[in-house]
Amino acid sequence: MNGRPTAAAAGKIDVGGDVTANRLGFGAMRITGPGVWGDPPDQERAIQALRRAVALDVNFIDTADSYGPEVSERLIAEALYPYPEDLVIATKGGLVRPGPGQWVPDGRPEHLRRAREGSLARLRLDRIDLYQFHRPDPKVPIAESIGALAELKDEGKIRHIGVSNVTEDQFREAERVAAVVSVQNRYNVADRSSEPMLDLCDLEMVVFIPWAPIEETGTIPALMAAARRRGVTERQVALAWLLTRSPQVLPIPGSGDPDHVEQNVAAASIELTAEEIRAITLAAVSR
User: How far apart are CA 268 and CA 275, in angstroms?
Assistant: First the structure.
C-alpha cells in the first residue's frame, strides 16, 4: 500500500460471533445518482471508489436495495465480484422508492422475502452475511417483519439479522423474535439523538453502525481546531472521534470519489488526545 494508512488501523470488530471486519467500513449509498436515485454521473469513478476502498483494507460494505434503487448493489458486484474471502457485504430491505426523494416503509413479510431474493441476485451471493431491516413500518408489527427475516435465516439465505432506524423499544421487540447483531441509526459528532441506542449496543456488545457519520462537521469548533492542528480535514477528525466513542462503533463513510475514500480511510490512523476527545464530546453535547 506504499505506506498509506488502511482500514486495518481502526482495529477489528466482531459481527455476530462468526464474522470479523475492520472497524472502518464503506457506505455505498453515495455511489448512486443525485438524491440516491438512478445511476451515478460517472459509473467508472464509482466503481473505482469501491475498488480503492477494498484495496485499502476496507472489508465491510453497507448497502441497500433501495439505493438507486438497486443501483448500489449492482455496482458492488460489478466492481468487486468475485469477492475477496474476507469481504462482508451488509444490505438492507424494507423501504421502497416510488420516485426521487421518496422513501416508503414496507415491512410486510412477502415484500422482505422478495427484497432478499433481489439482493442475492444483484450481489451474486448465495447468502447475505448481515441483512438489516431498513426501517420499521407503522402498518406492520415489527415482530412480523423480523419474524420473516428469522425464517430466511433458518433457510440459510441470511447469516445475521440487523435493524436500522429503531428506538430502544423497537430493538427490544425485534430481539424477542430473533438474535439482532447490529443497529444502524443516524449518529455523528453533531447529531447525538441516538446516544441511548449506542450506549445500549455498547452494553450488550451489539455492533452500532452510524449512518451520516461525517455530516455537520463544520459546526463544532473543537473539532475544527483539532483538524487545523493536524493538517487534516474536519471529516477525518469526526471519523477518528467516532472510533473513540465505543469499540462497538463501525463507521461507514461513503463516497463515489476514490480520493475521498482514501481520505476517509486515513482517519483510522488519527490518534486524538484525551483532551481533544473530551473537548469535541462536550462541544457536541452542549449544542
Answer: 18
